[in-house]
Amino acid sequence: MTTSVSDVTTEAAISAIVAAHRHQRGPLLEILHAIQSELGHVPKEAVPLLARELNLSRADVHGVVTFYHDFRDAPAGRTTVRICRAEACQALGASALVGCAEERTGLPLGRTSADGSVTVEQVFCLGNCALGPSVEVNGEVLGRMSAVRLRSILDEAVTS
Ligand code: FES
Q1: Which segments in the chain show pLDDT lower than 50?
Q2: 72 found inside a domain
Q3: What is the structure's pLDDT at 1?
Q4: Contact at 8 Å (CB) between 72 and 39?
Q5: Of 20, 69, 104, 114, most Cβ neighbours within 10 A?
Q6: Where are the beta strands (DSSP E) in 4-146?
Q7: Strands 118-123 vs 111-112: parallel, antiparallel or unpaired
Q8: Among 85, 126, 140, which residue has the most ligand 1 atoms within 8 Å of its CB, making it the best to mutate?
Q9: CA of 55 to the centre of ligand 1 (A)
Q10: Which atom of ligand 1 is found nearest the CA of 88?
Q11: Residue 127 alpha carbon to ligand 1 centre in Å
Q12: Which residues line ligand 1 (CB under 6 A)?
């Protein structure tokens, strides 16, 4: 297998992040957040690298990455829609929003469209419970979301 320039760049970026956080106690979570912040996702090749650098097993690192829904293993779409599925929003119609999103994009939650235009994910509480159901679009929390409004957002996302 050959190593591409982007592999080297990714590895170098991860190594720099590890070096910056190594001094912290139990730095794995901080490092994972920093990787996602810098690279937009936690690439699969980060797992063995972090295991080696932090003297952990690959299973330990993989377990943490997959436990937290915030970490994604591929870049997000140009528009990222996160639908809250925690209790308060669930009681106010979050399931209908999920159905709307899946129907409009043709994707299950957690996936990105093949053209990279949109990612739809679930999240468990956006801190906007009183104004649910809540949805976050590219970091902006929107309350009292309706299927019609969500559909309009997704229409715009998939055509841009
Ligand atoms: S339960 Fe949805 S924002 Fe808190």
Answers
A1: 1-2
A2: no
A3: 47
A4: no
A5: 104
A6: 79-84, 111-112, 118-123, 135-137, 140-142
A7: antiparallel
A8: 126
A9: 37
A10: 1
A11: 6
A12: 84, 86-89, 125-129, 132, 134
- How many domains, the chain? 2
89 is in an annotated binding site: yes
The two tokens of residue 41 are 């996702």
Is the CA virtual torsion 124, 25, 11, 55 positive or negative? Answer: negative
Q: Determine the residue type at 151.
A: R
Q: How far is the CA of 41 from the centre of ligand 1 (A)?
A: 24
CA 150 to centroid of ligand 1, rounded, Å: 16
Q: Give the pLDDT confidence score for residue 160 in this predicted structure.
A: 64
Token code pair at residue 51: 């295991």
- Residues 95-140: pLDDT tens digits? 999 999 999 999 999 889 999 999 999 999 999 999 999 999 999 9
Domain with 55, as residue range(s), is: 5-67
Domain boundary among 67, 98, 120: 67
> Are 91 and 55 part of one and the same domain?
no
Total-model pTM: 0.76
